[in-house]
Specification:
Layout: E1 6-10, E2 13-17, H1 31-41, H2 45-58, H3 62-78, H4 82-95, H5 108-123, E3 130-134, E4 139-141, E5 145-152, E6 160-167, E7 174-178, E8 185-192, E9 202-211, E10 217-222, E11 228-232, H6 253-268, E12 287-288, E13 294-295
Parallel strand pairs: 4-11
Antiparallel strand pairs: 1-2, 2-8, 3-5, 5-8, 6-7, 6-9, 9-10, 9-11, 12-13
Length: about 300
């Protein structure tokens, strides 16, 4: 799938988003999952079902779980078990509500069943969108911060989004807005800049508001109770470990060490930002669903 990127400038920050191939089996590395797909392709359905259920119980990777649900739905369609097929499609849509089939890769029986169930599911009341905040467990400051948000919005319910943020020492929130969201799935990259450059590790408070075309707030994602830890990375030195306890920071040994490292590193100047990838190729950190619950 070709990638399309649009850059929007707002208060010295930018947002980049584009369509992505979220549902490509070729990117999966889980050996049990690969073997289960092989069993499915060889029509060894009982063996495939056993492996898919094994992966579902063990993995925390949402792409792997979604793929298991997809193939389990396929399998039960071919076994003419409509109840189980609908159940596994519904589990798939809970993760990726914008999922759609490549009808050239499945049998007519599977494609016909999927079309009927999918159309019915999309027409049922309720917001079908899904939003995931990515890479919030490992953030490094570099004259700003990059936060990524992944959208899945099959009915195009979301029209615009507002991200408000501040470091713990600031009194007011800064704001970035995405307007005219017209895509079923993409990843938005929020580049956050601050009025005051931090000198030590700090806590980042932020929340994301999602609105429909009429300006109705669909839902809000907040991290106020559990702010993300942002690390200051000094050229030539290792990342300093943040103490998440309630101990007063100015009395701790890591603070003294951090100040010393920063004083030396400031001579070289600059810092770099590093985003972490999740295990086995799919984003899986700090996932947040529309009902505002954290999930793995």
């Amino acid at each position: 799938m070709k990638y399309m990127f649009i850059v929007i400038f707002f208060m010295t920050s930018s947002i980049v988003f584009g369509n992505s191939a979220f549902f490509d089996d070729a990117n999966l590395k889980n050996k049990d999952l690969q073997k289960g797909i092989e069993f499915y392709q060889n029509l060894e359905f009982d063996k495939a079902i056993k492996l898919f259920n094994k992966v579902i119980k063990k993995t925390n990777n949402r792409m792997e779980k979604a793929t298991c649900f997809k193939y389990l739905a396929f399998t039960y369609t071919l076994k003419q078990d409509d109840d189980k097929s609908e159940f596994y499609y519904s589990k798939l849509f809970e993760i990726y509500p914008d999922f759609d089939l490549d009808y050239t890769t499945v049998t007519p029986k599977i494609s016909d069943y999927f079309k009927d169930y999918h159309n019915t599911w999309l027409r049922t009341p309720g917001i079908k969108s899904k939003v995931y905040l990515l890479n919030t467990k490992k953030i490094t400051y570099n004259a700003g911060i990059n936060l990524k948000v992944e959208w899945h919005d099959p009915n195009l319910d979301i029209s615009y989004a507002i991200l408000k943020y501040k470091q713990d020492s600031e009194k007011k929130y800064s704001q970035i807005e995405i307007k005219d969201v017209k895509a079923k799935n993409y990843i938005a990259s929020f580049n956050l800049s601050f009025l005051n450059d931090p000198t030590i590790d700090f806590k980042l408070n932020y929340y994301l508001e999602l609105y429909d075309i009429d300006g109705k707030l669909l839902y809000k994602i907040k991290n106020k109770k559990s702010p993300a830890t942002v690390k200051i990375n000094v050229p030539g030195g290792a990342l300093n470990d943040y103490d998440n306890s309630s101990k007063e920071w100015y009395k701790s040994t890591w603070f003294i060490t951090t100040v010393a490292i920063i004083a030396v590193g400031a001579i070289g100047g600059g810092a770099y930002f590093m985003l972490s990838d999740t295990k086995e190729g799919a984003p899986n950190e700090a996932q947040i669903n529309i009902n505002i619950t954290n999930s793995n």
